[in-house]
Amino acid sequence: MVTPEIAPSGREDLPVVRARSWASLKDQAKIARRLGLTGALLMGVSALGSGAFPVPNPLNGLRVLGLPSRNVTAAIAVTYAGLGMVVLAWLWIARMLSSRGAVAPAPERRELTRTAVLWAVPLALAPPMFSKDIYSYLAQSATLARGIDPYTIGPAQALGIGDPLVGGIPTIWRDTPAPYGPLFLGLGRVITALSGENAVLGVYEHRILALLGVALLVWVLPRLAERANLEPGLVLWLGVANPLVLFHLVSGIHNESIMVSLMLTGLYVALGKDDSPQPWWKITLGSVLIVSAAAVKLPALLALGFVGVYLVRKRGMHVRDWLVVGSGLTVVAAAVLGVFSAATGLGFNWLKGLSAPGEIRSWMSVSTDLGLLSGQIGRLLGLGDSTDATLTLGRGIGGVAIGLVCLYLLLKCLRGTLDPVTGTGAGLGAVVLLGPVVHPWYLLWALIPLTATRAMPHYRRAILAVSVLLALVVPPTGADFIFRAYQLPMSIIAGIAMFAVMLVYVRHQLRAASRQTEFLL
User: TM spans, by residue (predicted)?
Assistant: First the structure.
C-alpha cells in the first residue's frame, strides 16, 4: 500500500492525485465496457420475443426459445433496458477519448475494437431487430432469381401473397418494386440460390454480408482518420461502435453497411494517405469502388463528384484537366454500372425503382413535413384538400435545395477549402435531410464519413447527440403499434425502471472501486 505524501500546504502530493485519477478512470472504463456488454446480451436474448420475425414465427411452439415471443411486452421492455445500457456505455467511453490520442487510462484502439466486437456478437447471433427490410431484400432477390423484373412489380404480385418470403414484409411494402441497385440484388440472388425459401437461413446469410461491410469500415476508417490527423481509436468508436451501426447495420442488416464501406474505401484508395498525387490505377480502382457503392444505393455516386473536383484542382484547373478527369470518371461510371446492369439481365430498369421509397410520408423529412404542413394550412383556410400538390411542391423545393447545397460544397472542394471526405459526408447529409424520405439509418450515409474528417472535433458533440437520439426512436420489432398502442408505452416504462435499477448498481460499483483505489493509494 502506498502512503499519500502530504505537501506543506496540507494537500496530497500532485503525483498521488494523478495516480488516483488514473485508477478511477481505469475502473470506469472497465465498468462501462461490462455495462455495454450486459446491455447487448439482454438485447440479444430479448430479441427472441421483440425481434422482427418472419411470418409465421419459426419460434412458435418451442418451449424455451419460444417463451419470449409469448411475452412480447416483457421482451420489448428488456430490449429497451439493454438498449439504454449500450447507449450509456458508448457515451461513457466516448468521453474518455481525445481527438488527438487516447491518453491512459482511456481504452486504446485495440481495446476499443475488442469491446465493439463483444457488443456486436449478441446482436449478430440474435434475430433481426428495428426493421423488417431484410424480408424485402429476400423477396426482391427471389423475384429476380425467378426471372421476374423486381423493378416493375412488388414481391406480393411476383411471388404471391402466400409465399413464405413475402409474409414478413410490412403491408405497405409488399407491392413496392425494388429501390436498390443491381449489385445488391445480384448479391441477393446468390443468397437466394443458397437459402431458397428458408427465410431464417437467408437472414443470416444477409447478416454475414452486412458484417463484411462493417469489417471493411473497421479497416478503412482508421486509415481515413490518420489522413485527417485524428486518433483512429476515437474514429472507430464514433463510426463503428456507434449504437446506430450496432442496431441498424449489425442487428437490422441494412445494406448501408455495403454502400458506405465501399464508398469510403473508394475515397481512401483514390485520394491516398495524403495529398500527394496518386497513380492512375489507384484513382481508377477507387472510382470503381465508389460506383459499386452507387450500384447498391445511388446517392453514393456523389462521392465520385468530389473525387473529380479534387483531381481537377490538383491538376491545375485548366480546361484540359476538366475534360480528362470528367471523361475518365464518366467512362468508369458507365462501364461499372453497365456491367452490373447487364449481369442482372434487366439492363437499366433499376433506375425506375429509385422513387419507390417516396411513396410513404416520412415525418423526419423536412421537405415532406413542409408539404404536409402547407396542405393542412390550406384546408384550415378553406382552400380544399391540396395535400398531394403541396407535398409534390415541398419535395421539389427540397430537391432544388439539395442541388444547391451539393454545388456549394463542390465549389468549396474545388477551391481547396473543403476536403472530399467532408464534402461527401455533408452532401449526403443534405440528400438525406432534404430528401423525401428519412429513416434513422439513412443518417449513417453522412455520419460515418464525417467521423473521419479534420473538422470532426468541432461537431463531435453533435455526432454523439444525433446518434443517441436516433438510436432511441425506432421500436425493436420494426413494426407499428396501431392496434396495440398500449404495449409500447408499457414496455418503455418497464424498460426505464429496469435501466434505473442497473444505474443504481453501477453507481454502487463505482463507489466500491473508488474506495478500493483510495485504500491502495
Answer: 35-53, 73-92, 234-254, 283-310, 322-343, 363-381, 393-411, 431-450, 462-482, 488-506
